[in-house]
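Weekly puzzle thread! Below is a chain. First person to post its structure in C-alpha cell form gets bragging rights.
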Amino acid sequence: MADTPAPFSPVLCAPFLQPPVLMMVAPDDEMVHANHGVARLAFELMPGAKEWYDIGGGHFGLLYRPNELFDEATRVQADFLRRWMH
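Winning reply:
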C-alpha cells in the first residue's frame, strides 16, 4: 500500500466504476504497487463492461517507440476505444 495520509487500494474503488475499462497489465511488472494479483482482483470486482489484456515488457516497456510492444499496446488501446466510443 502507498504511504499516503489515507490508505488506498484499487480494490476499494473498483466496485463503483461505471465506464467501460481496459486493464492492460504486465504480469512481470517490476513496480511494487503494480501487483498483477491486486490488479486482477480489482478487475474482478468491477461491475461493468471490462476487458483484460496481459502485455509483456514490465512497467516501463511501453515507453520507447518505435518497437513492437509499443505498437501492440497502442493497437489494443485504439481497438478498445473504437468499440466503446459512440
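Puzzle host: Confirmed. Bonus trivia for everyone else. The CA atoms of residues 26 and 56 lie 5 Å apart.
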